[in-house]
Amino acid sequence: MASTNPISRFTNLELGCQPVSHNQEVSQSSDENLHLEEASRLFDEGLFEPALRSFAKVLEFNPQNTTAWTRQVQMLIELGEFHEAKLWADKALERFPRCPELLATKAVALARQGDLAAALAFSDACFEERGQGAYLWLARADVMFARKEKRADYCFEKAVTLAPSDWRTHWQASRVFFYYRKFTLALKSAQAALNITPTNGILWCQAGHCQVELGMTALAESSFQHALDLNPRCDEARTALTQIKSTNMFTKLRGYWNRFTSR
User: Are 56 and 9 in contact (CB under 8 A)?
Assistant: First the structure.
């Protein structure tokens, strides 16, 4: 992760309730919505670091926005900053102790840090608060995978059932599968997302990364090139294509091995 420091962001963020006029409230609401839209767009493009900063901007205008708090934790998890994600979740839960989405994100952060008992407890808690939505089940699956429990499959199925036509659900499922080295399942989920939104470059990148890990070098090259055709500014696709050209035999053999062991 780059130089962004979530802890310093807490220090600099004004979370107090200062009196504001009606015109200021309208202006702040407009700015909040603009930053939220921008942050969501960046997330959809897989640009997690800029999205992290944009969600922080949302909180500057409205520290009561639970979506922004939740997304901040999710971005840190995507960036591999699990310790910081837990700290951010703790800070958010001080304000919103019964928010199901925040409880779920903390469960994921704990699971990826290896605190499996606490992860399960927080995952249980998010459903005890009658939380609904596909993300809660994806988070549950993440915890189940970390615990090496077969119930993870049911959780993924539940998430997809709740949002079958939402490409983000399939994309996020693919990223969870990929993190736990279930590359065949990750590719299947990426392809399901592409069936819904075939012109989304970040999904072609996700499919390409899965294909690389499965030794499908030619298909991966095609996927990354397609991503680059859709978005010529996609550095992720350009970098991946360069790496593919320097792929050695050991990497290819590892891919073949993954194909048989990552189901």
Answer: yes
